Amino acid sequence: KVSFIVWVAIHNRLYTGDRLMLFGLSPHSQCPFCLDPGESHSHLFFKCSFTNRVWGAIEGKCNMKWPVLDWPDIVTYATKETKGNSLRANILSNAFLCSIYHIWIERNNRVFNKECKPEEVVIKSVIQMVRSRMLSIKNLPNSASDSWFLSQWNLPTTILKPHIIRYGRAAE
Question: Please, what's the b/e burial string for 4-16 (b: 16 or more CB within 10 A of its CB; e: otherwise)?
């Protein structure tokens, strides 16, 4: 589900307010979070005050700050930033993907079901999904920043490649 939603989002094909208006399916394009009159991919995911607070919490858990860019540029940046197979790259990638997914799910719950979860619940959902995805990974290469990420996300060291002891010292 996450991959599909993100793939559709990356191609600017989610039915945000601006797209619904374009097809004549909605009389307005109001953001269901902040009530801004111009819901678009860029607004929904990175310019809305509600989603900005969600991203801020996730950025803190990732020890990084996404730059202020429009939708297609932030996707390009995220793709470059999450290259590789390190613990950091995997966490950043999953955090980006799961944040987009949960923001979209919450948006749809507000629009179609009239259910409004507070941002703390959305943040917790993102964190839980990232953590559960990370728990399914094994043999990630070790790096100096791993202990911080392991602690921050409450992950076991077993997701990292085991250290091999040779001649009394650890080798990678």
Answer: ebbeebbeeebeb
